[in-house]
Amino acid sequence: MNEQLTLEVSPVPEPTLDNFLVGQNAEAVNTLRHLLPGQSVYLWGSNGCGKTHLLKAMAACHQGTYFNHESHPFLASITFQNTPPLVAIDDIESLTEDQQAELFSLYNEWKLRKNTSDAFILLVSGDVSPLAMPIREDLRTRLGWELVYRLEQLSDEQRLTALQNRAHEKGLQLSHEVTHWIFTHYSRDIAALFNLLDALDTYSLSTRRPITVPLLKAFFIKTKS
């Protein structure tokens, strides 16, 4: 098996629109590429469909700010004077009541400013559609004020391509035998696959061995011990 020996831990690629594997989500991604100040988008879908990737990519692209329920301080840190060009709020199903109140206020501020020179882009994500989101009613109605897109999961073939692309970005090569073993014995969730790749990169360095099926087996034995 012709695999390279990892000599240093490869950096984790930053999320961008260009390294997002589009799959069936071309319309949503194309919309994101052309968003203007004053527009709002709600993205929803199950875990692993790419919501976090897209929100972080958009925040970086627009010099914006990314938030989730673990962000401290939360949206109260945004004022009229320092509102970034884009505000992204991820996984709103996990927001506390206080955080929901802050998001409600932000939606109202976005609405007031959407047709002014102080307009900003508002990008929000959740795991279900606006109507099904278990949050306060007045906030739920605001989720559907403008564009709403459901993000579809990748097919197995597309997940394999995504894994190979991520490995390439990290300067790694994965043989067919390695990827077949991973897809046979491990979760096919994209986030889990990317985390596994990072862990294998580190383990390959520490053992000074290339990423092969024997190394995979040794890695899982070690992690279970």
Automatic annotation (TrEMBL):
InterPro entries: Hda, Hda_lid, P-loop_NTPase
GO terms under biological process: DNA replication initiation; negative regulation of DNA-templated DNA replication initiation
SUPFAM superfamilies with a match to the protein in the record: P-loop containing nucleoside triphosphate hydrolases (SSF52540)
Domain Hda lid: 156-219
Top-level taxonomic group: Bacteria
Annotated PANTHER family: CHROMOSOMAL REPLICATION INITIATOR PROTEIN DNAA, DNAA REGULATORY INACTIVATOR HDA
Protein name per the record: DnaA regulatory inactivator Hda
Species per Swiss-Prot/TrEMBL record: Advenella faeciporci
Taxon lineage: Bacteria, Pseudomonadati, Pseudomonadota, Betaproteobacteria, Burkholderiales
